[in-house]
Design goal:
Helices cover 62% and strands 16% of the residues. It has 178 residues and is α+β, with helices and mostly antiparallel strands.
Length: 178
């Protein structure tokens, strides 16, 4: 993550905070960034397309004025290539502001809304932070759940239990052979 992305992310965050638009800017920024495909990316970075043509393209598409003018600044300064990293930096600042934690839960089948809400409630109590949950279905999991956040992994899957059991049995078998 570069210093340039941090500077732009921090600038956008400061302006959004000042205008009380943190949520709307994050939502619109995520949507905008997700809509940028390879063709649009090539268009935005093409040296023969004028900066004004690039801006005109997004004039009607981006409705959030703050985000629109921020994108104009990126185009003017030839920094549009840092869009992903800037969004990441903005999200970090946003999460820090609201004590939000992104949590991934790996399960073998889709959780019901009640199960998701119970998991969020339990994690928020335990971690004393607001939790944004992303459930990922991994059919290789036999049962249980693996939860990951901030580099931490809590693996309560049957797969992990069986792996640990196998390792202990092999260790015990080697100990018996000695």
């Amino acid at each position: 993550m570069g210093y340039v992305a941090f500077q732009y992310g921090e600038a956008l965050f400061s302006l959004a905070l000042e205008r009380n638009e943190l949520d709307s800017v994050l939502k619109d920024f995520k949507e905008f960034n997700a809509s940028i495909d390879q063709d649009i990316y090539k268009f935005l970075n093409h040296p023969k397309v004028s900066k004004q043509d690039k801006k005109d393209t997004f004039d009607k598409i981006v409705t959030n004025d703050l985000l629109k003018h921020f994108i104009y600044v990126l185009i003017d300064n030839l920094r549009i290539e840092f869009l992903d990293e800037i969004l990441e930096e903005y999200k970090k600042l946003y999460d820090n502001q609201y004590k939000t934690l992104d949590v991934k839960a790996f399960v073998n089948r889709e959780l019901s809304e009640l199960q998701k809400q119970n998991l969020i409630t339990n994690l928020e109590k335990k971690l004393n932070r607001k939790v944004e949950l992303l459930c990922i279905v991994d059919e290789s999991i036999v049962g249980g759940m693996r939860v990951e956040y901030e580099g931490m992994v809590h693996d309560d899957t049957i797969n992990n239990y069986l792996h640990s059991l196998k390792a202990n049995l092999l260790k015990w078998a080697r100990w018996e052979d000695e």
